[in-house]
Amino acid sequence: MSHSYFTRKLLNIKDKNITFSEDYLEEVKLNGITSFIFKGILTYQPTHCQKCGTLFDSKFKKHGFKTSRIVIPKVSLHDTYLDLKKQRYYCGHCQSTFTLSTSIVEKNCYISYHTKHAIALEAKIKFLNVISHVAIRSLIQPSIESSIAFMNLKP
Ligand SMILES: [Zn+2]
Q1: d(CA 125, CA 114)
Q2: Which of 8, 54, 119, 132 has the fewest CB atoms within 10 Å around its CB?
Q3: How far is the CA of 108 from the centre of ligand 1 (A)?
Q4: What's the gap in Å between 17 CA and the centre of ligand 1?
Q5: What is residue 77's three-state secondary structure?
Q6: Dihedral of CA 4/21/68/99: which sign?
Q7: Is 136 helix (H, G, I), strand (E, B) or coil?
Q8: Residue ranges for the chain with pLDDT beneath 70
Q9: What is the DSSP string of 14-75?
Q10: Residue 84 host element (H or E)
């Protein structure tokens, strides 16, 4: 198994078109906070042009890369990002260019689905903690008051 395979496993990335080169991980300070940046490459042969819909043929040419920084779930409690180099293509039929897309993010979005899910889960856990705290307080409260009342009865 390649290190790309293990990195995808670690980051929970299902898209096999994303690979990681040798120096794929960098530890940097962003706004004074130690953060991890994973560097991935997205490349595959598109089935058709995203602009005109023409099926892939010899008139399609690779046209450099576009890098986006995507927020992904924390690794070892560090803010973690994926710098994803996405392959661009030129379509000779409509003379336009387009960037390959991946299933880990919505188009033009820089927060991964997993991060959105983690944020929603964290909010839910915080909410449940508050609710259970309130519930426990309301259960304990009467017993504390009754034991104080009981103590006050003692001579
Ligand atoms: Zn086209």
Answers
A1: 16
A2: 132
A3: 20
A4: 22
A5: coil
A6: negative
A7: helix
A8: 106-110, 127, 130-155
A9: --TTEEEEEEEEEEEEETTEEEEEEEEEE----SB-TTT-PBP-TTEEEEEEEEEEEEEEEE
A10: strand 78-91
Instruction: Measure 70 CA to ligand 1 centroid, in angstroms.
Output: 27
* Residues 6+ away with beta carbon under 8 Å from 68: 83, 84, 86, 105, 110
How many Å is the Cα radius of gyration of the chain? Answer: 26
Q: Which residue has the tokens 């899910």?
A: 117
> Rounded to an integer, what distance in angstroms lies between the CA atom of residue 81 and that of residue 79?
7
- pLDDT tens digits for 5-27? 888 988 888 899 999 988 899 99
- Ligand 1 centroid from CA 85, angstroms: 21
For 95, list phi and psi in degrees, rounded to 5: 50, 40
Rounded to the nearest whole angstrom, what is the distance from the C-alpha of residue 90 to the centroid of ligand 1? 8
* Å from CA of 61 to ligand 1 middle: 11
Distance 57 CA to ligand 1 centre (A): 11
The rounded distance, in Å, linking the Cα atoms of 58 and 48 is: 12
Q: Would you state the structure tokens that stand for residue 112, as one six-digit string?
A: 């991964």
Q: Exposed/middle/buried for 50, CB within 10 Å: 0-12, 13-18, 19+?
A: middle
